[in-house]
């Protein structure tokens, strides 16, 4: 079967009125342009999406004043990319970016520097065959194998412990209502009350008492939204290591250097 055509959405905005510590430490205005592995953070994510078969368009959600600076950095023609003004919260930013888009959508963040085309393709297969919404996850073992300092918080389920990979898929416009879960900003592992509000008290209790597997938990969440929500468990745990702070920046830098070395060796 031919690869499905999809639209990619990259969330690159900062919280209003908040100075990102990592951006400040590296002397730039926005975290999305912090250099790592010889490129701004966002360029790594964009290149992975562009290398995925089937990509049709890309929409980048960011503050309007960053449109021109980002256009000068990205490895794409301006006709390929749309810039969408960031909203007050994550959910509304996703809604704005998906307005008028039909067909499969892939959503990720600008700090997802270890994203690969393989992970995106795995997400596409899920949302075009068995689910309306896909959520990429990696097991604790896979994450810590990739880097022992890669993550410190994990979601505990009956079958395993997992970390989110900041990669989501939506089968079409009908599935975008699931983004309502992120209206308060996501980061459920850091702020449990957001999880409580998003999935309901009973579901959280079942999760905390390890009575639900990851697949079962997402299935229950899907019934709450009347959608089929499925996990996409990625074997490479590095996908769960995004650049949140100086610690994860250092982890990602090591893994990027390792990947680049492997690519050079393979090309030789």
Describe the structure.
The chain is an alpha/beta fold and 268 residues long. It is 37% helix and 19% strand. Strands 1, 4, 5, 6, 7, 8, 9 and 10 form an 8-stranded mixed beta sheet that branches. Helix 3 links the parallel strand 4 (55-62) and strand 5 (81-85). The two termini are 32 Å apart.
Question: CATH homologous superfamily name?
Answer: Spore Coat Polysaccharide Biosynthesis Protein SpsA, Chain A
Number of strands: 10
- Assign the CATH topology: Spore Coat Polysaccharide Biosynthesis Protein SpsA, Chain A
DSSP strand (E) fraction? 15-25%
Number of domains: 1
Portion of residues in helices? 25-40%
The SS-based structural class is alpha/beta
Q: How far apart are the termini?
A: 32 Å
Radius of gyration: 18 Å
CATH class: Alpha Beta
What is the molecular shape?
globular
Low-confidence stretches: 184-189, 191-203
* CATH architecture grouping: Alpha-Beta Complex
User: Can you write the helix and strand succession as a string?
Assistant: EHEEHEHEHEHEHEEHHHEH
Average pLDDT figure:
85
The count of helical stretches stands at 10
Largest sheet features: 8 strands, mixed
SSE topology sketch:
Elements: E1 6-11, H1 21-25, E2 35-36, E3 39-40, H2 41-50, E4 55-62, H3 67-73, E5 81-85, H4 90-98, E6 105-109, H5 117-127, E7 133-139, H6 140-146, E8 155-156, E9 161-170, H7 192-199, H8 201-208, H9 214-225, E10 229-233, H10 246-267
Parallel strand pairs: 1-4, 1-6, 4-5, 7-10
Antiparallel strand pairs: 2-3, 6-9, 7-9, 8-9
Helix pairs in contact: 7-8
């Amino acid at each position: 079967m031919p690869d499905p055509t999809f639209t990619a959405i990259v969330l690159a905005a900062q919280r209003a009125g908040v100075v990102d510590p990592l951006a400040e430490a590296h002397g730039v205005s926005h975290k999305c342009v912090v250099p790592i592995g010889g490129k701004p953070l966002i360029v790594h994510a964009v290149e992975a999406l562009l290398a995925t078969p089937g990509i049709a368009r890309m929409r980048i959600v960011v503050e309007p004043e960053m449109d021109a600076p980002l256009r000068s950095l990205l490895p794409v023609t301006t006709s390929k990319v749309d810039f969408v003004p960031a909203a007050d919260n994550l959910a509304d930013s996703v809604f704005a970016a998906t307005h008028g888009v039909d067909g499969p959508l892939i959503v990720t963040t600008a700090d997802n520097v270890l994203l690969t085309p393989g992970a995106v393709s795995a997400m596409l297969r899920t949302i075009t065959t068995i689910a309306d919404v896909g959520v990429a996850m990696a097991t604790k073992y896979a994450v810590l194998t990739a880097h022992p300092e890669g993550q410190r918080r994990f979601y505990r389920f009956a079958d395993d412990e997992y970390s989110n990979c900041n990669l989501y898929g939506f089968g079409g416009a009908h599935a975008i209502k699931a983004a309502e879960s992120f209206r308060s900003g996501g980061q459920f592992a850091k702020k449990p009350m957001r999880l409580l509000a998003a999935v309901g008290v009973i579901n959280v209790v079942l999760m905390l008492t390890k009575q639900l597997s990851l697949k079962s938990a997402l299935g229950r969440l899907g019934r709450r939204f009347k959608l089929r929500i499925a996990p996409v468990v990625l074997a490479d745990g590095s996908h769960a290591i995004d650049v949140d702070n100086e610690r994860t920046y250092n982890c990602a830098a090591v893994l990027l250097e390792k990947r680049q070395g492997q690519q050079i060796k393979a090309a030789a």
